[in-house]
Amino acid sequence: MWAVALAANISLWMNDVSAAWLMSTLTNDPLWIGLVQTATMLPVFLLGLPSGALADGLDRRRFLLGTQLWISLTAMALGATALLGWMSPALLLGLLFLNGIGLAMRMPVLAALLPEIVPRPQLPAATALGAVSMNASRIVGPIAAGALIATVGTAFVFGINAVLSLLAAGMLLRWTWHERKSPLGRERLHRAMRVGLQYVAHSHRLKGVLLRMGLFFLCTSSLMALLPLLAKRLGGGAWTFTFLIASMGAGAVVSNTWLPRLRHRFSSDGLVLRGTIAQALSILGMAWADSLWMGMGLMVLAGAAWITTGNTLSVASQLGLPDWVRARGVSISQVTLMGASAAGAALWGQMASLHGVAWSLVCATVLLVAGMVAVQLLWPDAGVHEDLTPTSLDRKPTTAPAANGHVLMEIEYVVDPERAESFLDLMQGDNRSSRLRHGALSWELLQDLGQPSRFVETVVDASWTDHLRHFERLSVSDLRLRERRLAFHVGPAEPAVRRYLLTSTVK
Fold first, then answer.
1. Residue 349 to residues 22, 177, 233, 346, Cα–Cα distance (Å)
2. Among 102, 170, 299, 420, which one is most buried in terms of CB atoms within 10 A?
C-alpha cells in the first residue's frame, strides 16, 4: 500500500508541476495561474465527505481501483489535448477539475486504511512514513516532470501520469482487503454523511485541529500558487520551478528524521506554532529572494515547516477518530485542507494580480502568524486523547418495533441533590457530545419538578437500526463515560431504560 501511495504521489506532483507550468505558458495572469491549484483541490472540497461516507461502507479495494482508472483517463485526456495544441486556460482548468474528482474519491480511502494496517501506538511513525512517500515524490515527481517538459513537452508528462496510475491499479490487484460487514447492513449515504459531520461538530478536539489546519493551508497555499511566477522572477524557466519544488520536498523528507524527537520535546500546539513561524519566514523570504540558491534554501525551510505542522495536525486528527467513522472524519480533514488551499490559491492569486506577488506573500505571512497565535490562545489543545479502542456492552435491546420510525430512548436517574450540579455538568457536556457524535438526532435532559432528584435523559435516533448501531460503535472511552454517569445514580436499582416508537414519524 505504501508503494501504491508512492506511485500515486509521484503522478500527482508530476501533474501539478506540468499543469502549473503549462498555464504559465498560456497566460501571465497571476489569477489564472493561482486557479490551477483551485481547480485541482476544489473537487476534494465538494466531494470529500461523500467519498468518505462511501469509503466507510464499500469494498475499499474496488473503490481504489475505480479512482485509479478515472485518474488515468483524465491524464490521457490532458496529454492528448496538449499534444494536439487544443489547450486553453479554461480547458486546462476544466480537465484539472475532472482529474481532481478522482483525487477527491481516492484520498480518504488511502488515509483511512493506515490505522487498519498498523497498530495505534505506531500511527505517528506510520503517518511520518506516509509523509516520506509524499515528499520523496515531491522531489522525484518535479525533477522527472522538469526533465520531460524541457525535452519532450508537457503532453508526455500527462501520458506518463496515466501509465503510473495504471501501474498503481495493477499493484492494487495484488492486495486483498478483508471487508468487515456489519450485521445491520450498510448505512444510507445521506445518513452516513450526517453522522460524520455530527461526529466532528461535537468533538471539541477535532474542531480545534480543523481550525488550525484550515488557517495554515489557507495562508501557505500562497507560496505554491505563486511559485511559477517566483521562478520566472528568479530568471529561470521550467528547471528553476522544478528545483524550487524539489528543494521543498527535500526539506520535508529530512525533517522526518527530527519529528520523533520534536514530538517528545514539544506539545502538539508547540510544534504547530514553531512550524508556523518557520513557514512564515520562508514565505516572507521568498517575497524578496533574488537568486536561485537563496530561493532553494528558503524552500527547504518551507518543506521542513510544512511537514512538521502538517504531520502534527494529521496525527491529531487520526487519533481523534474511531474506526467506524474514520474515512468520513479523514475526508472532512481533507475537505478543510483542500478547501482552504483552493480558496487561498484564488485569494492570493487575485491579490498578486492587483497589488503584486511580494505584497500578496507578505499579507499571507501576517495572517498566518497572527491567526495561529490567536487560535492557540482562544482554543488551546488540552493534549488529552480518548481511548477509542472498540469494545462492547452486554446489555443490548432485542425487541424490534413492528413499524419504521424514529426511536426515543428514555433513561431515568435518581441523583443526590447535593451532587446535582456536577451531574448536570457531566450530562450537558461530555455526555451530550458523546450521544450526538454517535449519530443521535437529538438529546435532552429533563428534571422532574415534583421530585427534583429525578432526571430523565432522552435520546432520539432516526430508526431502530440506527439505534442498534450505537452498540456497535462503543469504545473504551464510552464505557468509562457510562460508569461516570451511573456513579451519580443513587436509586435502589440501575436506571430504568424505556424505548418508544415515535408514531408521528411512522411511514
1. 17, 42, 16, 5
2. 299
The closest of 145, 55, 97, 92 to 332, measured between CA atoms, is 55
Asked if residue 357 lies in contact with residue 290, where contact means CB atoms within 8 angstroms, the answer is no
From residue 396, alpha-carbon distances to 233, 463, 468 in Å are 67, 16, 8
Mean pLDDT throughout 277-294?
A: 92
pLDDT of residue 298: 93
At the top level of CATH, the class of 407-505 is: alpha beta
If you search the block for the grid coordinates 517538459, which residue do you land on? Answer: 149
Mean local confidence (pLDDT), 185-193: 76
CA dihedral sign of residues 237, 242, 248, 250? negative
CA atoms of 163 and 72, how far apart (whole Å): 7
* DSSP output for 225-243: HTHHHHHHHTT--HHHHHH
Q: 2-176+188-378 has which fold? A: Growth Hormone; Chain: A; (1.20.1250)
Residue spans per domain, the chain: 2-176+188-378, 407-505
Question: What are 350-367's pLDDT values in tens digits?
Answer: 898 888 899 999 999 999
Contacts of 321 (CB under 8 A, 6+ apart): 199, 206, 329, 330, 388
Q: Is the pLDDT of residue 297 over 70?
A: yes
